[in-house]
Design goal:
The complex is a heterodimer of chains A (782) and B (188). Chain A is mainly α and 782 residues long. Helices cover 60% and strands 5% of the residues of chain A. Chain A has helices at residues 21-39, 48-60, 64-88, 91-115, 117-121, 123-126, 132-145, 151-166, 175-191, 195-222, 225-245, 250-264, 269-274, 280-283, 290-300, 307-331, 336-357, 362-376, 381-397, 403-419, 423-440, 446-460, 462-491, 532-548, 585-593, 602-609, 613-622, 707-728, 733-744, 752-764, and strands at residues 562-569, 577-584, 599-601, 631-633, 646-649, 659-661, 730-732, 768-770, 777-780. A three-stranded mixed β-sheet of chain A has the order 1-2-6. In chain A, strand 8 and strand 9 form a beta hairpin. Chain B has 188 residues and is mainly alpha-helical. Helices cover 56% and strands 5% of the residues of chain B. In chain B, the strands form two sheets. Chain B has a two-stranded antiparallel sheet with strand order 1-2. In chain B, helix 5 packs antiparallel against helix 8 and helix 6 runs antiparallel to helix 7 (122-134). Chain B is built from nine helices and four strands. The termini of chain B are far apart. The chains are: A mainly alpha (782), B mainly alpha (188).
Chain lengths: 782, 188
C-alpha cells in the first residue's frame, strides 16, 4: 500500500509482535495470488516492495515452512496447467510451444525469486531447501518435461530435426532447437539431474553413430576414395558448425567429434589406402596426384593412428619402385649411372610427397629415409653404382658446368651417399676410379674433382679424404718431376753419336707418374717382362729419380700405362703401310715379341712376357678383334682354346687412320660404356700400386663387397674391439657389439656375427678372454 | 720307478707306463686323467721330471702297485662340474702339437666322444661330430680352445635348443652354426 510518499519520521521502537498462523495464512494468500498474477503476466499491478515485505515478514516470524510449501504448491499447479496443454499440442508446433513455455516460466521464476529473496537467503540454507529459482526449474522438469506425452515427443523431434539437416533438407530456424536444448542444460544444472544427457545427448550420439556408420559404408561403396575424403571433411565441418550453432554442451562436442571421426575415418582408413585405383596407395603411383594425397592426409590426420596406413603405403611404394630399379640394373637394362639417376629421381618425387602430401611430417620423413636405406642396402651394389655415377660425372657429365651446377650435382651424390650402409665400399671404388682418371688425365676439370673431395670431407671428416688429397699431390709433384727429367735429359749427351738407331737397344721416350704407395689403390701385380728399350728408359729415369730421393724404392706398375708403337704392315716392298698403334703396356710387350718371330703360341707369349693369364688373354683377344686384327688367332671362334693356340702377325692389317687406337675388350660379355681399361697417360708408373684393371672396374660385381674392403673391415673391427676393451677392461658381449657398431657406423655396418668372429680371433690370440663366472663377459688381457 | 724317466717323458714313455698298468693308451681316458692329476701342464704331449715327481708325491704313488690301485679313482665320474671343466681344458691343451694353439678337426671328433662320454647325451656328441665332419668351412678345420671349452659349457647350459637365442648369444659362431645344423635336422 502506497505509504511510500510519507514524510520520514522516527517511529517509536515497536516490540516484536508474534504473527499467528491465521495471520500468516492471510499473508500467504495474498502472496499466492500475486504469484498467480505474475504467472499470468499481470505483474504490473503489483507492488514489489509490499510482496517482498510480506515474504520477509513471514520468514521472520518463523513461517518459512508455510511460505515455502505454499510457493511450491502454487508453482506445481501452474506447471500442471501448462503441461496439460502441451501434452495435446501437435508435433508440428510442440517445439515452439515448449520453448515458449520455458521462456515464460523463466521470467516468472525470476520475478518470484526476487520477491522471495529473503527466504532464499535465510530460510532456504538453514533448512537445506532448494533455492526458489532452482525449485522452479526442478518442478518444471518433473512436471512439464517428464510428462509421457511431452518428453518422448520433444526428444524425437529434436533428433529428427538434426537428421533432416544431415539429409540435406532445409530446416526451419535452428533457434527452436537451440532453445530447447538450452532448456535441458539449464534444467540439468538446476537440480543436478542428468536430463540433458539422458533425454538428448546419449540418444543423439547414438543416432549420429548409426547415421555415419551407414552413410560412410554406402558412400564408399559407390564413390572413389577422393570423393569420399571431400564428403567426410564436409560432414566433419558440418557437425562442428551445428554443434556451435545449437550451443550443444561442451561435453557433447568431444564425444560427437570422436564418433564422427571414428565412423568416417578410423573405420575406413585402411580401405581408403588400399582401394583400387583411387586409394592412397594407388594415387602414389601417379606423380600428378600429390594434392589429392594431401587431402587424404588432412582427413586421416584427425585420427593419428590412421596415418600409419598412409606411411605404410608410402614405404611399400618406395620398396616396390626400389626393387624395380634394382631389377633393371641386375638384368642389365639400366647401367649403374642410370640406376643412380633413378634413385635421385625417386628421392625427389617421394620427398615431395612427404613435404606436400604429408605436410612435412617428421615421422613420414623418417619412414621415407628408412625405406630408401632398406632397398639400397640389400647388398653393396648401390655403393658401386654410385661410384660409377660419380666417375661418369667427373669424366664427362660435368663438362661445361658452372661452379654452382657442379656443387649442386655433387651434392646430390652426397644425398644418396648418406643412405649407404657400405660407405667403405663406395670409397674403395671411388678411389679406383679416381686413380684411373688422374693417371689417364680424364678428369673433366680439376675444380670439379676437388669439389667432390671437399664435399666428401664435409660429410665424413678429413680422415676419409686425406689419402685422396695425397693422390692429387702426387700428380702435381709428378708433373714437376717430369719437367725436371726433361731438362735433365737435355743435359745428357746423346749416346749414339753415329745416329745409328738400333731399335732394340736405344732407350725410348717415357713419361712417368710417380705415386706414393698407401695413397693409391693397390694392385700388387708383379711387373711383366718389358722390351729392352723400355727397360733402358726405365733405368735412366730410376737413376735420375733415386739420385734425387735416396732411400726410396720404385716399383713399376706394368698393369697400367700405354704406349705408342710404330708398326709397318704390308707384304710387297712398295706397299708398306705405316701406322702408329696406341696400345696398353701389355699389348706393347706382346707385339714387340713379333719383331723376332711372326708366330707364337699362348704359352710362349706368357713365358716371354710374364703377364698374368687373365689379363694376357684379354689383351691378346683385343689384338685379334675383327676391327683390329693386328694378330691372327689360330683357333676359330672368339675364345682362346689352349696354351698351344697360335697368334700370327697379320701383315694384311689395314686402317683408314694413321693413328690406330686398340681398345681393350671388357672382361664380361656384356660390356658397359666406354671400357677403356687401364690406359693411362703414356708411360709406366712408379712407386705404389695403381687402379685395378681387374675387370674394367665398371661393372658392379653383383653387389658383393670387394675383398680388399672386406679385409679392411676385419682390421677395423679388431682395432675397435681392442681399443674399446683396453679402455673398459671388462664388457658384456651385447655392450661390446653395440659399442663397436656405433664406432664404425660412419663407414659401414658390421653384423653382430662379423664382430663376434673377430672377438673369437682375439680370444685365440690372447688379447681377450672370457670371464670365468659369466661367459658373456669379455675381459681385456693386459 | 721314477728313475726310468729322464728330464721329461713323451708319449712313448707314457704308453709304456700304460702297458705296465694294463690300460689302452689311445682309448682309455684314464690316461689323460692321470696326466692331468699329475699336473702335466708345461708342454703338450709330455710330462717333465719335476711335474712327475711333484705329481707322484701329491697322489701318494711310489710303486706300480699303487698306480694300479689308483686306476679306479681316475674315472671322470668322480669329478664335479668345475673339476671336470678344468680336466676338459687340459685334454685340449695336452693334445696340441708343439706350439700350435689349435687342434685338428679329426682329433677333436675323436676326443669329444672319448672325453664327454658319460657327461653329455650321446646324441649331442654324435651330431656335433657329424656337423664338424660335414662342414666345408675352412676355418673349422682347426678348433680353438675357446670353441672347445664353449662346447662343454653349451652342453651344460643349453639342453634344449629351442631355448637358444642367437641374437644375444655370446657363444662362438661355431656353436651358432651347430645350432642351425640341429634345427635343420629337426625339420626333416
Amino acid at each position: 500500500m502506497a505509504d511510500s510518499k510519507k514524510r520520514f519520521t522516527i517511529k517509536p521502537f515497536r516490540t516484536f509482535v508474534q504473527m499467528d498462523k491465521t495471520g500468516a495464512e492471510q499473508i500467504w494468500a495474498s502472496l499466492g495470488d500475486a504469484i498467480d498474477e505474475i504467472h499470468h503476466r499481470n505483474a504490473s499491478s503489483l507492488s514489489f516492495e509490499e510482496l517482498y515485505r510480506n515474504a520477509y515478514n513471514l520468514v521472520l516470524h518463523k513461517h518459512g515452512d508455510l511460505l515455502y510449501a505454499g510457493v511450491s504448491d502454487r508453482l506445481a499447479s501452474h506447471l500442471l496447467e501448462i503441461v496439460q496443454r502441451l501434452a495435446d499440442v501437435p508435433d508440428s508446433s510442440l517445439l515452439e510451444e515448449m520453448a515458449h513455455a520455458w521462456s515464460e516460466h523463466r521470467i516468472t521464476m525470476v520475478m518470484v525469486r526476487d520477491i522471495l529473496m529473503y527466504m532464499d537467503r535465510t530460510y532456504v540454507p538453514q533448512n537445506r531447501r532448494r533455492p526458489v529459482y532452482e525449485l522452479g526449474l526442478h518442478l518444471f522438469r518433473t512436471t512439464v518435461w517428464e510428462h509421457p506425452r511431452v518428453q518422448p515427443r520433444v526428444t524425437q523431434l529434436l533428433l529428427d530435426a538434426i537428421a533432416e539437416e544431415r539429409a540435406g533438407l532445409l530446416t526451419d530456424d535452428r533457434t527452436l532447437l537451440k532453445q530447447n536444448l538450452g532448456m535441458l542444460l539449464e534444467l540439468g544444472a538446476a537440480d543436478a539431474s542428468n536430463v540433458y544427457e539422458r533425454d538428448f545427448e546419449t540418444l543423439f550420439l547414438g543416432t549420429t553413430q548409426e547415421f555415419y556408420h551407414r552413410e560412410s559404408l554406402d558412400f564408399l561403396a559407390k564413390n572413389t576414395a577422393i570423393d569420399y575424403v571431400a564428403k567426410a571433411q564436409g560432414r566433419l565441418e558440418e557437425e562442428k558448425a551445428r554443434a556451435a550453432a545449437l550451443c550443444l554442451a561442451q561435453t557433447t562436442e568431444g564425444p560427437l567429434q570422436n564418433i564422427v571421426e571414428t565412423e568416417l575415418i578410423e573405420r575406413h582408413a585402411e580401405n581408403l589406402v588400399k582401394m583400387e585405383n583411387s586409394g592412397f596407395a594407388a594415387l602414389l603411383k601417379d606423380e600428378t596426384k600429390v594434392d589429392q594425397l594431401r587431402d587424404m592426409y588432412d582427413l586421416l590426420v584427425r585420427v593419428p593412428s590412421s596415418v600409419d596406413y598412409l606411411r605404410d603405403a608410402l614405404s611399400e611404394r618406395v620398396k616396390i619402385d626400389g626393387a624395380a630399379l634394382i631389377a633393371d640394373q641386375e638384368r642389365g637394362q639400366a647401367d649403374p649411372p642410370a640406376f643412380v639417376r633413378g634413385v635421385l629421381k625417386m628421392r625427389d618425387r617421394y620427398g615431395n610427397v612427404v613435404s606436400t602430401a604429408f605436410r612435412g611430417e617428421k615421422r613420414a620423413a623418417k619412414r621415407l629415409r628408412e625405406s630408401f636405406e632398406d632397398f639400397l642396402n640389400a647388398d653393396a651394389r648401390a655403393a658401386s653404382c654410385l661410384a660409377i655415377y660419380v666417375d661418369e660425372l667427373l669424366r664427362t657429365g660435368l663438362k661445361g658446368a658452372t661452379e654452382a651446377e657442379v656443387t649442386a650435382e655433387l651434392h646430390k651424390v652426397i644425398l644418396v651417399f648418406r643412405y649407404l650402409a657400405d660407405k667403405d665400399v663406395f670409397e674403395s671404388y671411388y678411389k679406383q676410379h679416381l686413380a684411373k682418371r688422374l693417371l689417364g688425365n680424364k678428369s673433366v676439370s680439376d675444380e670439379a674433382e676437388r669439389a667432390m673431395v671437399s664435399q666428401l670431407k664435409a660429410e665424413c671428416g678429413y680422415q676419409f679424404t686425406s689419402k685422396l688429397e695425397g693422390m692429387f699431390n702426387d700428380m702435381r709433384i709428378s708433373r714437376d718431376t717430369r719437367d725436371a727429367y726433361k731438362r735433365h735429359k737435355k743435359t745428357q749427351q746423346p749416346r749414339q753419336a753415329d745416329g745409328n738407331n738400333n731399335g732394340s737397344s736405344k732407350p725410348v721416350d717415357i713419361e712417368v707418374d710417380v705415386l706414393t704407395t698407401g695413397y693409391w689403390p693397390t694392385e700388387n701385380v708383379p711387373p711383366c717382362t718389358l722390351p729392352g728399350p723400355v727397360n733402358g728408359a726405365i733405368q735412366l729415369f730410376s737413376d735420375f729419380y733415386l739420385q734425387k730421393h735416396t732411400g726410396r724404392k720404385l716399383s713399376w706398375q706394368t698393369s697400367t700405362g700405354s704406349a705408342e708403337l710404330k708398326a709397318t704392315f704390308g707384304t710387297a716392298p712398295n706397299k708398306y703401310r705405316k701406322h702408329d698403334l696406341c696400345v696398353s703396356t701389355y699389348q706393347m710387350c706382346i707385339l714387340m715379341l713379333f719383331n723376332e718371330k711372326s708366330s707364337l703360341t699362348l704359352g710362349e707369349i706368357r713365358t716371354a712376357t710374364s703377364i698374368p693369364d687373365q689379363e694376357l688373354r684379354r689383351h691378346l683377344i683385343s689384338l685379334c678383334t675383327p676391327k683390329h686384327r693386328i694378330l691372327r688367332k689360330g683357333s676359330k671362334g672368339k675364345a682362346i682354346t689352349s696354351d698351344s693356340d697360335t697368334f700370327t702377325f697379320n701383315a694384311d692389317f689395314t686402317s683408314k687412320m694413321r693413328r690406330v687406337r686398340v681398345p681393350l675388350v671388357s672382361m664380361k660379355e656384356t660390356s658397359i660404356s666406354g671400357a677403356a681399361g687401364a690406359s693411362g697417360a703414356s708411360g709406366a708408373v712408379g712407386v705404389g700400386g695403381v687402379a685395378a684393371s681387374g675387370g674394367d672396374g665398371y661393372t658392379a660385381a653383383g653387389g658383393a663387397v670387394p675383398e680388399n674392403v672386406e679385409e679392411d673391415r676385419r682390421h677395423l673391427v679388431e682395432a675397435a674391439i681392442v681399443r674399446i676393451m683396453k679402455a673398459r677392461k671388462r664388457l658384456h658381449h651385447n655392450d661390446l657389439i653395440a659399442e663397436v657398431t656405433k664406432q664404425l657406423s660412419v663407414r659401414f655396418v658390421p653384423s653382430p656375427q662379423f664382430i663376434k668372429k673377430r672377438v673369437e680371433g682375439l680370444i685365440e690370440r690372447e688379447y681377450l678372454e672370457r670371464d670365468e663366472t659369466d661367459r658373456r663377459v669379455y675381459m681385456y688381457v693386459a | 720307478e721314477t728313475s726310468i724317466y729322464h728330464t721329461e717323458t713323451t708319449l712313448l714313455g707314457i704308453s709304456m707306463l700304460c702297458d705296465d698298468l694294463g690300460i689302452d693308451a689311445l682309448e682309455d681316458i684314464r690316461v689323460l686323467v692321470l696326466l692331468w692329476k699329475l699336473g702335466a701342464n708345461e708342454k703338450p704331449a709330455q710330462i717333465s721330471k719335476e711335474e712327475w715327481k711333484k705329481g707322484c708325491i701329491e697322489l701318494r704313488v711310489d710303486s706300480m702297485a699303487k698306480f694300479k690301485a689308483l686306476l679306479p679313482a681316475l674315472d671322470t665320474g668322480f669329478l664335479d662340474r668345475t673339476e671336470f671343466k678344468d680336466f676338459f681344458k687340459f685334454c685340449f691343451q695336452f693334445n696340441r702339437q708343439g706350439t700350435h694353439r689349435t687342434l685338428d678337426k679329426d682329433l677333436v671328433t675323436a676326443l669329444i666322444p672319448m672325453t664327454l662320454k658319460d657327461r653329455v647325451p650321446s646324441k649331442r656328441l654324435s651330431t656335433f661330430c657329424d656337423f664338424l665332419t660335414e662342414s666345408k668351412d675352412e676355418s673349422y678345420s682347426r678348433i680353438t680352445l675357446d670353441q672347445w671349452t664353449s662346447f662343454l659349457d653349451f652342453c651344460y647350459e643349453v639342453e634344449d635348443i629351442a631355448d637358444y637365442d642367437e641374437a644375444t648369444s655370446a657363444w662362438p659362431v661355431l656353436i651358432d652354426e651347430y645350432v642351425e645344423y640341429l634345427e635343420e635336422l629337426e625339420k626333416k
